[in-house]
Design brief:
Layout: E1 15-21, H1 24-33, E2 43-49, E3 52-53, E4 59-60, E5 68-74, H2 85-102, E6 107-110, E7 114-117, E8 120-132, E9 135-145, H3 163-167, H4 173-192, H5 196-205, E10 213-218, E11 221-230, E12 236-240, E13 243-247, E14 253-254
Parallel strand pairs: 1-2
Antiparallel strand pairs: 2-5, 3-4, 5-9, 6-7, 7-8, 8-9, 10-11, 10-14, 11-12, 12-13
Bound molecules: biotin (BTN).
Length: 258
């Protein structure tokens, strides 16, 4: 691995780079199940993640050696279980800020925490928490970003793209990992110091289709609506014909630009 000094205080100061693994989240979970303590901020990064996991039991497919697939170990014991969406907000704005600053402006968070550029998915986040006495205990933050892969399976229903396609050049994976980890660390420490409300505003400012009149589907019904916010539990708030409705995961489909 490259001997890079990371610009962070603790995230990725312990970086374990694997040539191949099924899933970096699984690997980290396995490490945590062993009795030895693990430093908070440990990052597992894989060159070839061959059985990556996505949200809702989906798979995360990533070409070997071309993209970022990594997992961060955090201990957000200051967060109550009912406020766990705040961690998702902090991580997603961390990722989007880094991409907007170091790649190009225009990255958005598609609710709840997909990373979009225009109408294409560029990255995804899978957060797996454990709890103790009503608070979060450990959190595995799995992040996949399409970086230097240019071609994607055209049979996929979603539009998928990469930083390489946006910039028309390759990006150094470890440099980008440093920028993203630094940006997530800034947001994580802000969350820890009680800035969740400001982070929610920032999240909404960067939310894909926020306040735009767009087409959605729920329970087989297609309708026009405007995203107006998210609830404390992370449900999506959509105004439809003057009424406000909230939707949980899998309860609403975005129709305009899948
Ligand atoms: C999604 O959009 O469905 C979330 C995708 C998360 C993928 C990342 S890649 C690194 C980490 N390890 C996994 O198995 N999944 C996450």
């Amino acid at each position: 691995m490259q001997n890079k000094t990371f610009s962070t205080l603790f995230i990725a100061q312990n970086l374990i780079q694997l040539s191949a693994v099924d899933s970096t989240n699984n690997y980290l979970k396995e490490m945590l199940s062993k009795s030895e303590p693990l430093a908070e901020g440990t990052v597992i990064m894989a060159d070839d993640q061959f059985a990556g996991r996505g949200q809702f039991g989906n798979t995360w497919i990533s070409a070997a050696g071309l993209n970022l697939t990594f997992s961060i170990y955090l201990r957000p014991s200051f967060l109550n279980l009912i406020a766990q969406f705040q961690l998702s907000i902090a991580v997603s704005i961390g990722v989007v800020n880094a991409l907007n600053d170091y790649v190009a402006p225009g990255f958005k968070i598609k609710w709840p925490n997909d990373i979009y550029f225009q109408s294409s998915k560029i990255g995804g986040i899978l957060i797996e928490n454990t709890t103790s006495s009503g608070n979060l205990k450990s959190s595995i933050i799995g992040i996949g970003i399409n970086v230097n892969q240019r071609k994607f399976d055209s049979s996929l229903t979603k539009k998928i793209s990469s930083l390489g396609n946006i910039l028309q050049r390759d990006v150094d994976l470890v440099d980008l990992l440093d920028k993203i980890c630094h940006s997530i660390e800034v947001q994580y420490l802000r969350l820890k110091s009680g800035k969740a409300d400001a982070q929610l505003s920032h999240y909404l400012e960067n939310l894909y289709q926020y306040a735009e009149q767009c087409n959605y589907r729920s329970l087989g019904n297609t309708f026009q609506g405007q995203i107006t916010g998210v609830t404390a539990e992370g449900k999506l708030l959509v105004s439809q014909d003057g009424e406000l409705h909230s939707y949980g995961l899998k309860e609403i489909e975005f129709l305009d630009n899948n």
